[in-house]
Inverse folding.
């Protein structure tokens, strides 16, 4: 049942998400007098959304070559990892590329394999994201509600981040189910 709910959630996330804002950093200007706590939270969440644009563009900006989907951001494993490292830690970028692509010897390139991937975080998620500052960095949580005839469930999508010289980087992702039977 748990796997079914997670598959349903992931399918829902991909089918219902709107595209992100154009793949560029959000232009947020704060008043000269400082920022309110709401502005600071929005700034952090927009930074998270910006980092997710690299994953979305990695998949969306692609072309077909001999029936294979090739990302415009690289043709080999190393180039694709390097592109995703703009938003993700090196280890997580490698895991993502390993999961969503496969080397195709017929064309000598990594190809995107159509399947479920990560839920996308977009500006439409802004009101639904909460965050906590921990010793290791900031943990963002996006909670999804799933209502089925025989049960109700929430799934927390946890995004673990750290600040680096290159800005905020996502280094770990988790799905945590909270089931409530009727």
């Amino acid at each position: 049942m748990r796997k079914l709910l997670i598959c349903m959630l992931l399918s829902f996330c991909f089918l219902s998400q709107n595209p992100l804002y154009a793949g560029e950093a959000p232009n947020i200007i704060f008043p000269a007098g400082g920022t309110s706590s709401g502005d600071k939270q929005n700034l952090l969440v927009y930074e998270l959304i910006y980092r997710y644009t690299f994953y979305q563009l990695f998949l969306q900006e692609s072309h077909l070559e001999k029936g294979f989907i090739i990302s415009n951001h690289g043709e080999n494993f190393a180039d694709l990892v390097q592109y995703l490292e703009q938003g993700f830690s090196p280890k997580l970028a490698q895991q993502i590329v390993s999961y969503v692509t496969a080397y195709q010897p017929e064309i000598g390139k990594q190809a995107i394999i159509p399947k479920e991937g990560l839920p996308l975080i977009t500006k439409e998620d802004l009101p639904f994201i909460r965050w906590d500052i921990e010793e290791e960095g900031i943990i963002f949580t996006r909670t999804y509600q799933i209502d089925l005839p025989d049960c109700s469930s929430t799934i927390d999508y946890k995004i673990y981040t750290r600040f680096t010289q290159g800005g905020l980087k996502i280094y770990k992702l988790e799905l945590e189910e909270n089931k409530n039977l009727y």
Notes: The mean pLDDT is 79. The first helix runs from residue 2 to 16. The two ends are 15 Å apart (CA to CA).
